[in-house]
Automatic annotation (TrEMBL):
<dbReference type="GO" id="GO:0003700">
    <property type="term" value="F:DNA-binding transcription factor activity"/>
</dbReference>
<dbReference type="InterPro" id="IPR036390">
    <property type="entry name" value="WH_DNA-bd_sf"/>
</dbReference>
<dbReference type="InterPro" id="IPR000835">
    <property type="entry name" value="HTH_MarR-typ"/>
</dbReference>
<protein>
    <submittedName>
        <fullName>DNA-binding MarR family transcriptional regulator</fullName>
    </submittedName>
</protein>
<keyword id="KW-0238">DNA-binding</keyword>
<dbReference type="InterPro" id="IPR036388">
    <property type="entry name" value="WH-like_DNA-bd_sf"/>
</dbReference>
<feature type="domain" description="HTH marR-type">
    <location>
        <begin position="1"/>
        <end position="90"/>
    </location>
</feature>
<dbReference type="Pfam" id="PF12802">
    <property type="entry name" value="MarR_2"/>
</dbReference>
<dbReference type="GO" id="GO:0003677">
    <property type="term" value="F:DNA binding"/>
</dbReference>
<dbReference type="GO" id="GO:0006950">
    <property type="term" value="P:response to stress"/>
</dbReference>
<dbReference type="InterPro" id="IPR039422">
    <property type="entry name" value="MarR/SlyA-like"/>
</dbReference>
Length: 115
C-alpha cells in the first residue's frame, strides 16, 4: 500500500506512519518499494513474516474484543453491531487501495478475510 494512502486510511500523520513503517521494516514485516509512477512515493509491502505477524495479532485482538466487550452484550445487540460494522467496512472498502502481500501470493485486503 502506498505510504500516503496508508497514513490517510489510518488517520495518521505522514511522519507518524513513516516512523511506524521504519519500525516494521526493521523487524522484517514490510519492505519499502519506490512507486514507479511517481518517484517521490513509496509503497509498504507486507512480507510473509509480516503476514504471519498480522494473523497472530488478529487472533489476539479478536480474543480481547470477545473477552472485554462481546461477552457483555446479548445476541440481538451483537447482530446489530455486526450489521453496522459490515456496512461501514463495505462503504469504506471501495476507497481503499489494495495492499500487496509480497511473496505470499495473496492480493486481498487483510481485514476482509471472510471471517
Amino acid at each position: 500500500m502506498r505510504l500516503l494512502d496508508l497514513a490517510d486510511a489510518r488517520l495518521l500523520s505522514r511522519s507518524r506512519i513513516s516512523r511506524m513503517v521504519h519500525s516494521f521494516e526493521k523487524r522484517g514485516f514490510i519492505e519499502r518499494e519506490r512507486a514507479e509512477d511517481d518517484r517521490r512515493g513509496w509503497y509498504a509491502i507486507l512480507t510473509p513474516a509480516g503476514q504471519d505477524w498480522w494473523e497472530r495479532c488478529q487472533s489476539a485482538y479478536a480474543s480481547n474484543v470477545h473477552r472485554h466487550a462481546l461477552k457483555l452484550l446479548g445476541p440481538d445487540t451483537i447482530r446489530v453491531v455486526t450489521a453496522a460494522a459490515r456496512q461501514l467496512v463495505s462503504a469504506d472498502a471501495a476507497d481503499r487501495p489494495e495492499p500487496v502481500l509480497k511473496g505470499a501470493g495473496l492480493h486481498e485486503h487483510p481485514w476482509s478475510g471472510g471471517r
